[in-house]
Amino acid sequence: MKINHISQLNPDTKVIIFSFLQDDNFETHLQKVSNDFKLNLELLKQDFKGDLKDFQIAYSLNNQKVILLGLGKNPNSSDIIKAFRTLFLKQKSKLSNEVTIDVQNLPDNLIEYVVIGSMLGGYNLDLYKTEDKKTFPIFEKNGLINILSTSETTQKAIIRGKAISKTQMQMFDLMNAPANKKTPYILAKWAVDSGKKFDYSVTILEKQQLKSQKLDALLAVGQGSEHPPVLIIMEYKSPEAKQKVGLVGKGVTFDTGGISIKSSTNMHLMKSDMGGAAAVFGTIELAAKLKLPVHLVGIVPACENSVDAKSFKPSDVIGSYSGKTIEIIDTDAEGRLILADGLNYLVKNYQPDTMIDLATLTGSCVATLGYHAAGMFTNDDELAKNLSKAADQTGERLWRLPLWDVYKEDISSDIADVRNYSGKPMAGAISATKFLEVFTENHQNWAHLDIAGTAFGDIEFAPQRTGTAFGVRLLLEYLENIL
Q1: pLDDT at position 460, please?
Q2: CATH number of the domain at 2-150, out of 3.20.20.150, 3.30.1490.20, 3.40.220.10, 3.40.50.300?
Q3: Class of 165-482 per CATH?
Q4: Gap between the Cα atoms of 51 and 83, Å rounded
Q5: Which of 113, 139, 246, 254 is the right S-S partner for 352, CB 3.0 to 4.6 Å?
Q6: Is 320 left (phi over 0), alpha (psi -120 to 50) or beta?
Q7: Rounded to whole angstroms, how far apart are CA atoms 85 and 113?
């Protein structure tokens, strides 16, 4: 599918979409569309109010399909994306191979999200079905979307929108793939291929290198799987960079819970336990694609947490890259173990100015915030402010939770430096973060984002739970705001 910028409407256009904000210009805009296409204004007023994601279809005397799409009041970028994604998803079988979207009444900064939503509407979830996949003219190779606008920034918005949506859809694929289709090695291969394509460096530490460098926590979690763990190190450095930002993403490609095994009821959803890795992959690729003026380092510790005679066990004491020893209370608290090695590797080898990790870490965070927001933990007020600002702009919500030292007692161990689980039925997300804090070398500009409830969920675009690529646009927005 191609996306072009046009400044004048082709009179032969067969399908045209008009977007409507519920603002003071709503009725004027509606009347203009009615006049231009000879539509019944009173019927339009009766049936179309401009509510978010509401759409109305009408036909002109020239047999043109006119679609009115509501964007509601004061929509954020996520609202715009969802509105256009919903429209294209629901109408893709009824659209010709060419569609024009009139965005002349929208602020210039929203055009990018129109492009993203339109492209995401064509995402195909049928990754491994053997029957012939349905094809839709608008999303085939010769499909064309024209963006009608007189703004000089439109072409830039199209380029950004296409870049972001293509990367997001790759993250959808990674999140939705089953464990046998995305082993740690496959994640590493994705990173290597992306690095070659977009010119950033990728280094993979395999099992023997992990042993020699003593990434013992990552090795312990992965030792029960036939697929060895890896540490994926990605680095994009712009010659104009003034800041170095480090990202760490949890890459558990499947989580059985290990010896502390999960219930079988929803275990199939644990293919999603690499949502943090997906966020880091997507952000690194986009930074390179868009040539952001930043030095960005991404670390993804990747492994499977499987049940085997070789699996690590509750009561084990294991080592870590930091040199600290860890008492294992629960093998299902594995994500914080691999993040401990990832965080410590990042801070010791790259000394980033700012450090952010993302992980589908705790059910406790889901119980607190549900599926609508991720938990944010940091002692840096400025970092919290900047991340919250980015979250408000992208609609990928964050809610700050405490990181007080009083919770340190929850990870205190009698026989090791620290234990990996408090064993208490409360404050689980906080105690998990206090565990991670131990391995940050007291870094002053660190934030942990618990995305357990937001990375994989029930959304209107799929019949079952599916990947959301949560964190990709959030981190991109954050980076662009601080540069």
Answers
A1: 75
A2: 3.40.220.10
A3: alpha beta
A4: 10
A5: 246
A6: beta
A7: 10
Where are the domains positioned within the chain? Answer: 2-150, 165-482
Q: Each residue of 274-326: pLDDT tens digit?
A: 999 999 999 999 999 999 999 999 999 999 999 999 999 999 999 999 999 99
Using the predicted structure, report yes or no on whether residue 21 has a pLDDT greater than 80. Answer: yes
Q: How far apart are alpha carbons 457 and 465 in whole angstroms?
A: 5
In the numeric block, the tokens 């009444």 are attached to 105
Give the catalytic positions in this structure.
262, 336
Long-range contacts of 60-64 (CB under 8 A, 24+ apart): 63/14, 64/13, 64/14, 64/15, 64/16, 64/37
Between the alpha carbon of residue 73 and those of residues 49, 104, 457, the distances in Å are 11, 17, 26
pTM score of the predicted model: 0.96
What is the rounded distance in angstroms from the CA atom of residue 404 to the CA atom of residue 379? 9
Characterise 228 by phi-psi region: left (phi > 0), alpha (psi -120 to 50), beta (else). Answer: beta
- Neighbouring CB atoms inside 10 A of 213's CB total 14
